[in-house]
Queue: 2 jobs
Job 1
Amino acid sequence: MDCDKCDDEAVMHAAYSGLHMCADHFCRSVESRTRRRVREDNLLPDDASPDDPETWLIGLSGGKDSVVLTQILHDTFAEDPRVELVALTIHEGIEGYRDESLAACRDLTEDLDVRHELVTYEEEFDLRMDDVAVEDPMDMAPCAYCGVFRRDLLSKYAAEYDADKLLTGHNLDDEAQTALMNFFEGDVEQMAKHFDASLGAFPGAADGGGDRDGTPVRVSTDGPFVPRAKPLRDVPEKEIALYAQLQDLPAHITECPHASEAYRGEIQQLLFDMEENHPGVRHSIMAGYEDLAAMAARAYRDGGGPEYGECERCGATTTRAVCRKCSLVEAVHAAD
Ligand code: SF4
Ligand SMILES: [Zn+2]
Ligand SMILES: [Zn+2]
């Protein structure tokens, strides 16, 4: 089958758009969807300048998503003095897994000449996820600890490096799964938080900041946390994997041995089946979800935002006396 845009042979067929594309046209399409998202989300504000550049911290795990994100952002902004990229890799202490993906991160950032920082649970919290998974003092899935620790470090280092935004490699499948999980759990407040934390456009978007014709705008970006964004969220997971392969990027593909999000796995299968039978369903879920989540964000904001204070132990921003990360670290150490 030929590419729909040239005479070369097609390497992929996107059922949701009906397009067959050759390697070259496919890669350009992934890049242009990513750049369009950066533009529509207004990630680069008008007042960014070479004297006062934006710093974007990229969460670089070494998996295909974050590797592709880093590559495309580098290709787009390496020559733009208004943007500085910093890649941050978090080592959880998972034998044989993160060591290999760390090598991928180093290869990529050396190749691109992007600043690369590494932080470890061992140095930060004096623990390793391999031990946490065994001790499990709170009787939870390993990912429940790991997610809290990772978020804490991303926030801490985003602040330490003076980052204006934290960018992660979440793709269309990830976001559609999260959207459905929030629906199925009936958690409208979580939808509102999801929208303001990482989904909506930044104010002053190209369409004038309105939300009728363009991307809905975040209700609040002035909270205590560095705002997050997901420039790959229009691109399906399979296409990101294909892009990494076609571009010969050093992505690491093994799954974490502690991966345990069973519920997300069920939703993933459900969405996979739906997409097979109804191509485009992930895109339409996200279009509707974004509008609903934006309305929810406005409704919750009218009721006043949460009250933040500082954690008594570590000083991190939290709504509790002792933050969740400190409670979990203490529980793990108490079980040693
Ligand atoms: S799969 Fe779970 S335990 Fe493994 S790195 Fe991810 S969050 Fe951590
Ligand atoms: Zn082509
Ligand atoms: Zn704390």
Job 2
Amino acid sequence: MIKKIVASSIIGIVIIISLAVAFSTELELESEPSPESTSHSMQGDFESDVMTGGDVVMPTKVSRPGCEETDRCYIPSVVSISAGESVTWVNEDSAFHSVTSGFYDAPIDLFDSGHMDPFDSYTLTFDESGNYDYFCTLHPWMQGKVIVE
Ligand SMILES: [Cu+2]
């Protein structure tokens, strides 16, 4: 009888200790900075800071067809800059989007933001003049253009 009581209290202590350890580990994990902020660091000009401004915005609800009818998939869909200037895109939608050079049917291997999380931004500097069409790899109807003079 005494052995049984000792055994069950030991089990109880073990459970309490393991709960305490699990709890403190959880707290530590929460306080660590999110690894997301560095996930796009491979892209040279990518800025990971959360922004709500930007030169071009992907507004809400563009993950469904329709925005192309009013030319509001990327706002504005056409931007003009001078050579050496940069453009910053901000995804203000709750869905993933991308800024990828070319057209959905004919992508060009020039630039690609990859999947942008909500409120991610992507900045590119254009050193050479020309017309740079781009699109979203996830939503074929999303099409925009950068004119570099
Ligand atoms: Cu998209």
